Amino acid sequence: MQRAMRLLETVAVHEYGAPAKQLARETGLALPTTYHLLRTLVHEGYLRRDKGLFFLGEAAERLSSSGARQKRRSTVVDALAHWRDVLGVPVYYAVYREGEIEVMCVSDTPGNPAVEEWADFRETGHAHAVGQCLLSQLDEDARRDHLDRYPVQPLTPYTVRDNHSLLRRLERIRRMEPVTERQEYALGAVCAAIPLTLGTTAATMAISLPAHQADRLLPAARQLQTEIGRLLGSLALSISM
């Protein structure tokens, strides 16, 4: 396995391909061993041979693509954990993709746990800050389409009462302002969400707090927004996961 990996790594360096003898020399492998490994790797799709030169095959490129995605996701996970520790609150990352609210990552601790998803986040976007923030970034037709599929339903005494009231609220949300909700999704919890600009993708980072700490909500959200602003350039590709 190690020898095969050395061969793959060496082939990857040669954008325009390399012959078996050169690969044997650069990896320090015996030529018969190199030929045997190359045949196996070609058969398995990790390499391809063209006019005596070896290139990375589709299987290796799929591995590379998967590894790049994992690295991007790791960047986001690390950033959320950092903000979680700096702010002392759970941090959430979510996107609106193909008509659905997707919570991609949550970073919390036993001392500062995330809000329990007692009602499906995808179906209750009207009630939580994550969903309201994402819906506020959509155009009117997309909002109405979402509410046709997931109409407003009361979850707590504080939840917005109907589709019309929610649409009016979304229209009043100012661009790039934090979106807050207080006990609309879960009693005892308050949340704030920061809109993110990712091309045409609606995205958000959010935080939550126990209701008795509601006075911390907006200052913590502003601090998160500042932190995101510092790193957004380097995270832009990563958070499109």
Automatic annotation (TrEMBL):
Residues 1-58 form the HTH iclR-type domain. Signal peptide: none annotated. The chain crosses the membrane at residues 185-209. InterPro entries: GAF-like_dom_sf, HTH_MetabolicPath_Reg, Tscrpt_reg_IclR_C, Tscrpt_reg_IclR_N, WH-like_DNA-bd_sf, WH_DNA-bd_sf. The keyword Chloroplast does not apply. Keywords: Activator, DNA-binding, Glycerol metabolism, Membrane, Transcription, Transcription regulation, Transmembrane, Transmembrane helix. This is Glycerol operon regulatory protein. It comes from Streptomyces paradoxus.
